[in-house]
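Design a sequence for this backbone.
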């Protein structure tokens, strides 16, 4: 992760961490925009929605990090994809 943050530079690292913080905060307080999407309609409690959202984001971050660290995507592609999931 340290190498990734070095390669991203300060501005992109700050943007990534800020968006990650905002996303996690919105999941925790129940205001996460995607909770109203069809992906969450089958869940009846906020806790279940929170678990699914965190699992999805964690999985997407892991997959994109794996692709980047194994040279399958470049840094800009990684950053753009991750920021898309966190917006």
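Sequence:
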């Amino acid at each position: 992760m340290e190498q990734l943050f070095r390669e991203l530079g300060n501005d992109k690292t700050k943007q990534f961490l800020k968006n990650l913080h905002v996303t996690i905060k919105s999941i925790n307080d129940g205001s996460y925009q995607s909770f109203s999407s069809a992906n969450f309609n089958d869940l009846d409690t906020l806790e279940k929605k929170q678990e699914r959202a965190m699992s999805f984001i964690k999985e997407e971050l892991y997959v994109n990090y794996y692709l980047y660290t194994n040279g399958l995507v470049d840094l800009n592609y990684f950053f753009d994809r991750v920021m898309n999931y966190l917006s």
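The CA atoms of residues 40 and 54 lie 12 Å apart.
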